[in-house]
Amino acid sequence: MDAADIPIRVGAPGDWDAIWNLLGQLFHSPPSDEARALEGAVFEPARSLIAEDAGALVGHVAAYTRNLTVPGAVVPAAHISGVGVAPTHRRRGLLTRMMHRQLRDIAAGEEPIAVLWASETKIYPRFGYGPASQRLRLDISTREVRLPDTRPDGRLRQVDPVEAIPVFSKLYDDLRADRVGWSTRDDAWWKFTLADVESQRGGATQLYGVVHETPEGPDGYATWRTKDDWNNLGPNCQVQIRELVAANPEAYLALWRFLLTIDLTRSASMHLAALDEPLQYLVDEPRRLGATLADGLWIRIVDLPRALTARRYPAPLDVVLEVTDPLLPANSGRWRLTADTTGNATCTPTADPADLSCTVLELGTVYLGAVSLAALQAAGTVHELTPGAVRRATAAFRWHRMPQPTDLF
Fold first, then answer.
1. Does 323 count as an annotated binding residue?
2. Contact yes or no for 304/114 (Cβ under 8 A)
3. What order of strands is seen across the sheet that includes strand 56-70?
4. If you ran DSSP here, which 8-state letter would residue 137 be given?
5. Catalytic choice (127, 172, 252, 409)
6. Angle at 68 between CA 119 and CA 402, to 5 degrees
7. 409 in active site
8. How many Å from the N-terminal Cα to the C-terminal Cα in the chain?
9. Which residue of 139, 265, 350, 358 could cross-link 237, Cys pair, CB 3.0 to 4.6 Å?
10. 258 given a catalytic annotation
11. Residues 123-151: tens digit of each pLDDT
12. Active-site entry in 124, 127, 172, 397
């Protein structure tokens, strides 16, 4: 069957096993009934698109219904995942058809943006997704770094992560509104986040949890694994940090001190750190944090006026944007974006001359406040039509803290 004739339909609950088998093949995942059940618990059939050829599932894209923290606000965001085409059906336009249909479906709903992690970063710019955040991968030589000697009040209590979900979720939700890049987690997503599937541990231990407590109650937690290793010099074990959440500097310091001083370990890794991770300014030898740069969340503006008015702006703004969006033409045209001294914004169509021109991809790139319009101007993808417009808009789009995506989905 020609790829243009392969039907694409909305998923059904009974499709999950076939979807799991396809994605397992595409992403080279080991088979696991436990992992199949955990991911099936967050599967939303009505938001899944399936391509079938002669009864066989050959393509899939999905969206999860969650909210995302953006600068100054929490907005509905389609969390895109499970994107793939069977090896027998690649390079035939099937992925393009599914992604285009998914964008149209999202645009018809209530979510002004879509967000994803890119398996291969060259794929998603074709569909208007911009690289909106980066992250640090820390591979720390724990014997080479020292933290301040101050000993804040509080104590540490080891917990079973799943049993501690009520404690974790309260802390997470209390902080989430101010943490750009954090996604909402209901009970199913908490269980998915804390999944402890043995086949996916890579030889490491089970997942552990620790809570930092004060007389006023818990104010931080961390989850981690350890991986056993010995060499001719003795113990060389590694701490693999999954997540660290702290409500204040005291809890942050106490949790890091604990994780970097576990007996018999010589290194620690954390691969979802923020670009402005405070640890960099606490240790005495930051080079030994082994920080390397990786991409984070990719953002697609789906409903331009709703997306730009949903977030907040740290500086007043009055700018006319000329935007091109070939996939969702309703976003194309000239838009007057204004923000007042409180950060509240309006975005309306206008016939006034444009101050800046770009595609929808560039607006997605700057949406989380991590990438500057000035950098995109220097790259030649944002064009200044009124002198000084880039400088003014750059100040308004930036945010006071870098995004820190915490969820892989």
1. no
2. no
3. 8-10, 48-53, 56-70, 73-85, 113-116, 298-301, 130-131
4. E
5. 409
6. 75
7. yes
8. 32
9. 265
10. no
11. 999 999 999 999 999 999 999 999 998 87
12. 124
Give the confidence band of 30 by pLDDT, cuts at 50, 70, 90.
confident
Q: What is the pLDDT of residue 5?
A: 85
Closest CA to 326 of 104, 118, 121, 122: 104
* Angstrom distances, CA of residue 209 to CA of 183, 206, 212, 221, 311: 20, 10, 10, 7, 33
Is the Cβ–Cβ distance between 222 and 243 less than 8 Å?
yes
pLDDT confidence tier of residue 3, bands split at 50, 70 and 90:
low
3-state secondary structure of 23: helix
158 and 255 Cβ atoms separated by less than 8 Å: no
Tokens of 406: 């915490």
The residue with tokens 């944090």 is 289
Q: Is 282 among the annotated ligand-binding positions?
A: no
Query: What's the pLDDT tens digit per position in 275-287?
Result: 999 999 999 999 9
Joined together, the tokens standing for residue 33 give 């009934």
DSSP state of 31: P
Does 95 appear as a known binding residue? yes
Q: Kind and range of the H or E element at 77? A: strand 73-85
Whether residue 93 is annotated as binding a ligand: the answer is: yes
Question: What is the distance between the alpha carbons of residues 143 and 266, in angstroms, rounded to a whole number?
Answer: 6
Cα 232 to the center of its chain, rounded Å: 40
**The pLDDT value given to residue 337:** 98
34 is in an annotated binding site: no
Counting Cβ atoms within 10 Å, is residue 371 exposed (0-12), middle (13-18) or buried (19+)?
buried
